TrEMBL record:
InterPro entries membership: Glyas_Bleomycin-R_OHBP_Dase (IPR029068), Glyas_Fos-R_dOase_dom (IPR004360), VOC_core (IPR037523)
Entries under Pfam families matching the protein: Glyoxalase
Annotated protein name in UniProt: VOC family protein
Highest classification ranks of the organism: Bacteria, Bacillati, Actinomycetota, Actinomycetes, Kitasatosporales
Superkingdom of the source species: Bacteria
The organism of origin for this protein: Streptomyces cellulosae
Residue ranges of domain VOC in the record: 2-125
């Protein structure tokens, strides 16, 4: 078994597409900016994040019709230089909720939300301290 992707069900597909492509800088698979589906990949690694129009999945399952409330997901992205990446994405319109700051002695993090309110955690892994 292999994890193919984490898929987020979104209401405002175009705004979320712009956030993941233009603000976070992830590569869209097909360029389907208006949806109803798109997968995004970082420059390295095999994991991906996908967006799917919430109404499309509601038709398939016969539920999920309303807007999601509360924090229902947390997307985690590992970056090499957290401070520099945060400067880049805030210049492109991101608003940090927290950080960059130490999370543990081995990790620094920053947190933000996408246009649908999904939490995004940016992680910078540190060398083990002696």
């Amino acid at each position: 078994m292999e994890l193919a992707q984490v898929r987020l069900l979104v209401t405002d597909f175009a705004a979320c597409y712009r956030f993941y492509a233009e603000v976070l800088g992830l590569k869209p698979q097909s360029g389907a900016a208006d949806g109803p589906y798109e997968k995004f990949s970082p420059a390295t690694g095999s994991a991906g994040i996908a967006l799917q129009d919430r109404a499309m999945m509601a038709e398939v399952l016969g539920e999920l019709g309303g807007t999601a409330t509360g924090h229902r997901s947390l997307v985690v992205l590992r970056v090499d230089a957290l401070d520099a990446y945060c400067e880049q994405i805030t210049a492109r319109g991101a608003t940090l909720l927290h950080g960059p700051a130490p999370m543990t002695d081995r990790m620094r993090t920053a947190h933000l939300k996408d246009p649908e309110g999904n939490l995004v955690e940016l992680q910078e892994w540190l060398l083990l301290r002696s």
